[in-house]
C-alpha cells in the first residue's frame, strides 16, 4: 500500500496511471482502499494530471464511496474539467461524475462558479462525445429530486434547467447517432423520474420541465422519428420507451385532441386542456409524424403502449399494432 501510494503521488504519468489501475482492481475485488482513493482525488482530480490519470481518477470516483473531503477535492477537478480546461475525453468523464456528487456539493459548484453555463456549452459542443455525455449528465441532474428541491428557489438554476431541457429536446434530432440515442434514454429517465418521484416542493418545477420537453417532442415528432429511424437496432432500444413516457405525460396533463378523428392531421397546435378522448390515448404520438412512423419503431411503440396499459389506436390507425410490418 505504501508503494502504491508513492506511485499515485509520483510525477511520472505512467507510474501514476498504473497505480490507479491497481486501485480499480482492488475496488472491483471489494478491498477497502479509502486512503488511496483520497490520494487519487487530491493528486489527480484537484490538481492537473495526464489524460490517462484523469480518466482513471474519474473511473475511481464513479466506483468508490467518496468521503465529504474526497468530494471537495473531486469538485475542484469537476469545476475545471467541465469548463474544458483539459481534453474532450476528460471533459466527458467529468460530466459523467457530476451527477454522482452530493446535492449540496453540486449547489456549491453552481454558486461558486459558472457550472450552468459550462454545461450548456458542453450540450452545444462541436464534439459528439461531449454532447452525448452532457445530455446524460443534464438528465441525471434534472432527475435528482433532492437537488431540484434545494435549487428550486434559485433563479440561476431555473434558467439553466430550462436551457438544459431545451437542449435535451434538440439532441433528439442530433445527427450524431450517439447523441440522439443518449437523448432518448435521457428523456425516458427524466420523464419517468419526474412522474414517480414527486413532492410538493418540486412538483411545479417538474411539471414545467416535463411539459417543456414533451412539447418540444410533439412539435417536431416527424423529424424525431426520421432521425431515430437512422439509428442502429441497438441504439433504437430507448426510443419506444421514451415516447411512451411522452404519452404518459400527455395523459397526466389531460392533453386532448380537439374534435379530432383518427384520420385528422393533428398539428402541435391542436392540443388544449381537458380530458383526453378515448381512442386517442397514445395515437396522437404516432399521428403527429404526419405519416406512418418507421415500422420497427411503430411496432415497438405500440407494443409498449399495449403492455403498459395505455390505450392504443383502433380503426384506421390500428394497423400499427395488428400489422407491424406495414
Describe the protein's architecture and organization:
The chain is mainly α and 326 residues long. The protein contains 18 helices and two strands. It has a two-stranded antiparallel sheet. The longest helix has 20 residues, at 177-196. The radius of gyration is 22 Å and the shape is globular.
Count of beta strands: 2
Poorly predicted segments: 256-296, 309-326
Q: What is the overall silhouette?
A: globular
Number of helices: 18
Task: Encode the helix/strand succession as letters.
Answer: HHHHHHHHHHHHHHHEEHHH
Strand order of the largest sheet: 1-2
Quick tags:
326 residues, mainly alpha, two-stranded antiparallel ribbon, 2 strands, 1% strand, disordered C terminus
Short description:
The chain contains 18 helices and two strands. The chain is an all-alpha fold and 326 residues long.
How are the SSEs ordered, and which strands pair?
Elements: H1 2-8, H2 13-28, H3 34-45, H4 51-63, H5 68-82, H6 88-97, H7 103-112, H8 115-123, H9 128-142, H10 145-151, H11 155-171, H12 177-196, H13 203-219, H14 221-229, H15 238-252, E1 256-257, E2 271-272, H16 283-287, H17 295-307, H18 319-322
Antiparallel strand pairs: 1-2
Helix pairs in contact: 1-2, 2-4, 3-4, 3-5, 4-6, 5-6, 6-9, 7-10, 8-9, 8-11, 9-11, 9-12, 11-13, 12-13, 12-15, 15-17
